[in-house]
Amino acid sequence: MDTPQRALVVDDLAGSRDWLARALALAFPGIAVQQAASLAEGLACLEPPPPLALIDLGLPDGSGLRLIEALRSLPGPTLCIVATVFDDDAHLFPALRAGAEGYVLKDQSPEHLAEMLRGIAAGQPPLSPSIARRLLRHFQPEPAPAQETEALTARETDVLRLIAKGLTVAESAGVLDLSRHTVAGYLKAIYRKLSVNSRAEAALEATRRGLVNNF
């Protein structure tokens, strides 16, 4: 974005308008700042559309979202930045869906806000740090729910103990008075239930569960 020559500030509090205007002046020396104290006043300032708009959400006659949507419907490109005290999802995401390209909180100095605004030319979205963290958390994939380990049967536990002590399938079959194929079947079920792929991994799991010492 080129350095904006004009900006619109929409906020019902005079002190907030002055704070935003000062930040704009620090960020872009010589910029012309037009101020509006309500949604109606803001809507009356859209011809021609300003290159940059700082908009509060809670206006006395409506939501600042309506102003953002109105700016988005005009042909001229306007960078819409929300300036608000609300840092919750219920305000953040509707603002972004309406077309806001920045979201800053009124908890910083004009100098800090000016630094954020200067980053616009470099393509940096003007986001307060807490808002950026909230966005990152929102789009991070949720961890997959932990899968419960299927319990081993008593006979599978016997096989696991023997395998963990170093016995072969044939030796384990002899101890348990079972066929070799039956023990091999139990071992396959053990691998599946414990999510392991080798006798060594099965032995480690048996040790972790305390089965070896209990044998």
Automatic annotation (TrEMBL):
All copies of domain HTH luxR-type, residue ranges: 145-210
Stored InterPro entries: CheY-like_superfamily, NreC/VraR/RcsB-like_REC, Sig_transdc_resp-reg_C-effctor, Sig_transdc_resp-reg_receiver, Tscrpt_reg_LuxR_C, WalR-like
PROSITE patterns to which the protein is assigned, alphabetical: HTH_LUXR_2, RESPONSE_REGULATORY
Matches recorded under Pfam families: GerE, Response_reg
Sites of 4-aspartylphosphate modification: 56
SMART domains according to UniProt: HTH_LUXR, REC
Residue ranges of every copy of the Response regulatory domain listed in the record: 6-121
Coiled coil, from the record: none
Keywords linked to the UniProt accession: DNA-binding, Phosphoprotein, Transcription, Transcription regulation
PANTHER family reported in the protein's UniProt record: NITRATE_NITRITE RESPONSE REGULATOR PROTEIN NARP (PTHR43214:SF41), TWO-COMPONENT RESPONSE REGULATOR (PTHR43214)
Name of protein: Response regulator transcription factor
Organism: Tahibacter harae
Lineage, opening ranks: Bacteria, Pseudomonadati, Pseudomonadota, Gammaproteobacteria, Lysobacterales
